[in-house]
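Q: Start with the shorter request: fold the first protein.
A: Done. Sequence, then structure:
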Amino acid sequence: MRTLDLGVILVYLIGITWFGARFRDSKQSLKDYFLGGRNAPWWAIGFSIVSAETSTLTVIGTPAIAFRGDLGFLQVVFGYLLARIVIVTLFLPHYFRGEMYTAYELMQRRFGPNIRKLTAGSFLVLRSLAEGVRVFAISIVISIILGTGEMSSILLIVALTLFYTFEGGMEAVIWTDVIQMVLYVGGAILSLFVILQQIPQGLPHVLDAASAANKLRLFDFRFDLSQEFFSRPYSFWAGVLGGCFLTTASHGTEQLMVQRLLSAKSQAESRLALLGSWVVIMFQFSLFLFIGLILYVFYQDTGRPAPEVPDRIYPQFIWDYLPHGVAGLVIAAILAAAMSNLSAALNSLASTTVMDFIKPFSKTPRGDAEYLRIARWATVAWGVVLMTIAFLAREVKSVLEYGLGIASIVYGALLGTFLLGVLTKRVGERAAMCGMAIGIATNLFLKLATTVAWTWYVLIGTAATFAVALLMSYFIKEQNARA
């Protein structure tokens, strides 16, 4: 045990929990709890979007991708920009017509209550499974610090995050996100310079060695429509198209992100927050990939064995080789990413549970104070669910790719349904539900029975959902279809 490092980590954990809990007194209504009262500036929401988009999976998984491969993952990030343009053009105008708390209220407005329940339920399943894997990723870091792989070692992190999310709601989530994003990006920059100092020949040698190993390749423009083409997760076509559809689904239809967009003071500020967040995302992924390249050169030069589990490479190096105090700060930064994403997930799961299921279908009149109490306890319940899923996710090989793969199975059906809502008039509720069922079934088939890469799932699922629903609309006559 290293007292200085553990002290730094402990100070961070206590400090961020105290800071988040301070927002409790301003939570008097559901609008305060779920939308932060719509008082946060656009730049804070932009940072919060980045934090929600980032997790321990990103921090420990991205360097591992570059360590094993090259810079091709950045092709996906270019798709993220295209997606943001699609969202501000297609979805944001609809979200700011009236006061919405969740993305799935739009589905009821367009189709009806059944599709609202189906899309909201799909989000609850999707986010709980994906977030459970992310929670498990915390145990990789904790096990390095404490020397244990027991799930009990992450209970402290989950409990502290749950506490300030329970108390402070969305406002606490946004402002703790800002602090935690600055901390984990700053920690990564600091670790990059410290790691470079471990290589006597410096940056020129890193670039030469990485180039010789073909690790500086960024673009893969091969296009042949073969089975191998669809099996490669990081090509230009899979990256730009797959990344675009993935992010349009995650940022445009999933409550985790839409809740942040709805928290802005206006549509214009929401647009600024979303587009501005891409600049930070691009820098962040480039930073973590470059750290992976440096670590590859370090282990090649020294002949030391790298950890057998790729996702342990970055946190293990930090703990073993960085100076005392610095290592604690960087580990605290990784935990910051975990807590940031977990708090966002807890609040979005609670908001969907209350606003899309409990409140619309409650037969007992309740005031805002009672719904606020229910929202807080829904947050606790989802914390228990995520811990359970994390325990079941211990056999995962690559936490980043597995988490994205889980999300991509449902994203296609969600995005296809939302596009039906904003682009068509003739498709009604039952036709949309048929399309959504086929979209999910299609992606499950791709995941379980083919070698198609996860980067294609959302595009294919979206196309299947949209096409089937449009076809069924010619056979199913519905009152809510506006042909």
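Q: Next, the second protein, separately.
A: Sequence, then structure:
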Amino acid sequence: MNPTYIENLTYDEIKVGDKATLVRTLQPSDIQLFAIMSGDVNPAHVDHEYAQSSLFREVIAHGMWGGALISTVLGTQFPGPGTLYVDQSLHFSRPVTLGDTITVTLTCRKKFEHNHHIVFDCQCTNQDGLKVITGSAEVLAPTEKIRRARMTLPEFRLSDRQARYDHLLARTRGLARISMAVVHPCDGESLKGALMARDAGLISPTLVGPEGRLRQLADEIGASLHDCAIIDVPHSHAAAEVAVKMARNFEVEALMKGSLHTDELMEAVIDKEAGLRTHRRISHVFLMDVPTYPRPLLITDAAVNVEPTLEEKVDIVQNAIDLARMIGINEPKVAILAAVEMVNPKMRATLDAAALCKMADRGQITGGLLDGPLAFDNAVSIVAAKTKGIRSAVAGQADILVVPDIESGNMLAKQLEYLADALSAGIVLGARVPIVLTSRADSAESRTASTALAVIMAHAKRK
């Protein structure tokens, strides 16, 4: 097939028994685009949670996605441009699931000289050679040769950032405001994030920082500090100490990092005498809403633990599972990431992954379904997992990604945010109270999304 031109076969050029084929692999975006185009939002196709309890136990393609592939062959190559549909009959034998590779074969069965109609036998088979769709199509074939430049279609990306942001905030619907100390919010984005969370009905904020600077900043960004308590402290170090003390004394239910360095806040949090330690290792989770992934994605730990040991990873995993369950993922699928999917004694990440999975089998980690080691592609792509022959309930549909160290995790989270338009929220787990911990470069929107997580956690702790 010439990639530059599209050219037909005329009625006279096609003989009985001639064939044409087309091969396509079903991607998540195929299902989403077909649903948008057709308006068919049957949960069997677009709702992964519902699909798990359906007949086929996983999301399946719309039946007419395969029918559209038949139309593609007829309209673009066999016979091609100038073809007019007359009749179509299809029988659907089995579902098409994500990652399935479908081969469409059209065979000329009968020709009618008097009206230039052609009847084609149509068959779609999957990668295992099993029939998916069978049937026939009748067309009015072109009688004149047509050769046209192949049109280049525009790129299409599925993304509605505002809808994704609203969806995250909707998780807090019906929950009362919580009290939150905002630590040194002395730049525009950190102050706006706290005030957006206030205006969204999420928090009653206490701003801990230099009062004069905070009021001047509010004037500069055109914001009001109504309904905000202010505790005047001279600098960021004092702000961290005061905010942590407030949380320790149950004066606030959560903390939010402002414009100070992460280390400065976390030093106060982990102080053995005056901090907020519990029996759990403190860890961080990024909750990412990625336009190209069909479910929320939790990444841990990308901000607190530099190079965690196996023992520390147990708490990191358990913290993430507990958070996933709080936001409605009943049995989160946990992918323990490494560079490869095979255990390699020379690669500690693979050994830790294998050990964590066995610890989950023995009940040392509970509430989730673990698998690893898994490379990133196998963790998030069913197509990649099937290509590599990986059979796993986690591969291709992970809810939680456990990274080997802070460097790989931080790079992964930032890449998704800046190159894949992911909406991110960051939260510290394992302390006495949830701590909104975002980068100083993060937007007010990201800070507010993170606050929504803190609200959910605080209410779960109340219960």
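Q: Describe the second briefly.
A: The two ends are 63 Å apart (CA to CA). Residues 444-462 form the longest helix (19 residues).
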